Structure formats: C-alpha cells, structure tokens
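Support reply, case 0932

Customer input (verbatim):
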Amino acid sequence: MKILLASAVIAVSIGLWGYLRRARRRKKQASPFAIPSGVTIGSARLLAEEEVALYSLLQMAVEERYLVFSQVPLWSFVEVEAAAKVRSDVLRQIALKRVDFVLVHPGSCRVEQVVQIEHESSQPHQIERQHVIESVLEAARIKLTKLSSKKNYSLPDLAVQLGITAEE
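Our regenerated output:
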C-alpha cells in the first residue's frame, strides 16, 4: 500500500512538474519582444573603408551582369537537404557565418559567385570559419574568389579575377 501511495505521489509530482514547465514555456513565447532597460542599440557600420572601395569596384566590374550584395549570411543562399538532425547540425554550423560579397544573377536570383576578402589572420576561429564557408560553397558548386585586402585592384584586374570577359 505504501509503495502504491509513493508511486502515485511521484507520478503526480512528475505530471505537475511537466505541466508547469510547459506553462512557463508558453508564457515566454506569448510575450512580445521588448528591449530590456539599460540596453542601448545603435546603427553599426556594415563595411570597412577598404570594403566600400572594393564594393564600388565590384559593381563597376560586373556592370549589369550581376547584382552585388555585401555581408550576406551563408545560410540565406544555400539549400540544405538532409534528415532533420543532420540538417539542424549543418545549419547550426553555418548560422553565424557571413560572406563578404555575393554576385547574384539578376534572372535566376541565385548566387553564382562569392567574393571573400583575405585578411592576414592566423587565428584558429577565423581559419575554421573560412573552412566552413569554403566547404559549403564547394558543396553548393558556388564559385569562390579570394581577393587580398592589401592589394589595390584595377577594373581590368578585378574582371580577370572574377572570370568576367567582355563577351559575357
């Protein structure tokens, strides 16, 4: 009898705990987003000065062949098709990775080429970040062009780097 009573108390406790946990989760989801007091949010610079110059040069080099976008999240232009768990793991890996510039075909609206600025950094997290980006681009068959942050490119040099010819 005592065992039955103890089992009932444990079952009710577990049920109550689960109910309260779900209720708390629902309450959190129902409340609208609000910026906490003491938090200041302002506009941040999207591109560094050398990136602005390269962006302008890219736009001139690709003329009307491509649309040029900067600081694009990697997950926003690749499709990940896999089982739910694997897909979640891949998306988690690429979630906070951004590429410097994308060249988008104006007809298909698909990214055809990514332009990354190579910075001289041997920090392990930067190397791993770049490895993830390169792996995803290779799997998606998206061309990657790396440009040195130290070099000043002329319009013809940049067109050659991008593989753009006059006939295109």
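We compared this against your earlier run and they match. Two observations from our side: The chain is about 45% helix and 15% strand. The chain has a mean pLDDT of 87. Please reopen the case if you see a mismatch on your end.
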